[in-house]
Amino acid sequence: MTKTIILAGLLGLSLTAFGPSFTSPAFAGECIVHTNRTACPGKESESYSKCGGSKECDKEDSADSEAACIAAAKAGCPNSRLDITKSKRVTARFNGKQLKGPFGGSFCAPNRPDFNKCKS
Description:
Elements: H1 2-18, E1 31-39, H2 44-47, E2 56-61, H3 66-75, E3 85-94, E4 97-99
Antiparallel strand pairs: 1-2, 1-3, 3-4
């Protein structure tokens, strides 16, 4: 019991020394994932609906590192609306730093099997 109280006291002191924000999500970092869609012909309205009607938009992610931000960007690549969205370019910034995707800055390969499937 005494050990528990001492450990709790030490934990309290360490939190006081570093401030409560040391353990808060404020240190998560700022990850901005930018998506730029190319719609299938005549499907612009539907394709761009995920960006509020715009061809491209930013989405904030709660990544806590560059690696996690890159993973969030890569997670935006899959295209489930094959007859609506032709392709996407997904880029990311972490704490203001532009992250470099391997495909001309994008994290999405242009030859993905779920791209360029529009029906004429």
